[in-house]
Q: What sequence folds into this?
């Protein structure tokens, strides 16, 4: 997560326009110390008076999702407007001086909010980020799956970009070669364990998607060097 403060601006239940939500985000960000202001929007064209005013300032950088790289957040104060889940995943590990997300869909941001615990900018006022609660240990997963996921999490943590193709191929091969191992677990159980192990949201999604695809009867293409692989 960003090194500096993180916030999310949310639409109030009685608000009929998103502009107050956008104003809360801009006002909060401009009060934060740090580097250059950056605004990231889905497309070059968007509807917001306050954000239009900001990006018109020659000292403000404007990016769109196309060709976007979250490493450009480093040392910046960032307004991240209306991201979906995939684009929220992209900012994991970015070293922004401050980051405010303008929420579009609660379903897209719910898990990110639970993990990032941002300051919440609401119509009623500001809700400070809660202290991280000590979560209870999850039930162990059967057939050594929790150990497999712990190994994969350790390997992913050693890379700045997270899960590598070879670890993903090992998982695919094990799911193909040892199908009975994975039958008793649900996608939700695997997702919860990956999150508890501290994996990035993108890696959590990748592994959960593999489990779901196998449960749907899908097969995987695995490189020859790992085609017969299985975890002990």
A:
């Amino acid at each position: 997560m960003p090194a500096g403060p993180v916030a999310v601006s949310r639409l109030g239940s009685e608000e009929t326009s998103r502009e107050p939500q956008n104003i809360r985000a801009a006002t909060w960000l401009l009060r934060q110390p740090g580097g250059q202001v950056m605004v990231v929007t889905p497309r070059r064209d968007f509807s917001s008076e306050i954000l239009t005013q900001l990006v018109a300032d020659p000292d403000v950088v404007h990016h769109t999702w196309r060709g976007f790289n979250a490493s450009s957040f480093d040392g910046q104060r960032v307004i991240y407007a209306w991201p979906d889940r995939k684009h929220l995943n992209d900012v994991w590990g970015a070293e922004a001086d401050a980051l405010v997300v303008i929420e579009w869909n609660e379903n897209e941001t719910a898990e990110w909010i639970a993990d990032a615990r941002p300051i919440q900018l609401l119509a009623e006022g500001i809700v400070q980020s809660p202290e991280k609660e000590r979560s209870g240990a999850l039930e162990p997963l059967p057939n050594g799956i929790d150990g497999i996921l712990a190994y994969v999490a350790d390997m992913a943590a050693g890379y700045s970009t997270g899960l590598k193709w070879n670890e993903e191929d090992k998982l695919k091969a094990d799911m193909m070669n040892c199908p009975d191992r994975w039958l008793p677990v649900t996608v939700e159980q695997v997702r919860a364990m990956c999150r508890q192990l501290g994996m990035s949201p993108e890696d959590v999604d990748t592994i959960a998607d593999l489990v779901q695809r196998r449960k749907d009867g899908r097969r995987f293409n695995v490189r020859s060097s790992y085609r017969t692989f299985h975890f002990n």
Observations:
- The chain has two domains: 6-127, 142-225.
- Residues 142-225 form a domain with the AhpD-like fold (CATH 1.20.1290).
- The CA atoms of residues 31 and 98 lie 10 Å apart.
- The two ends are 34 Å apart (CA to CA).
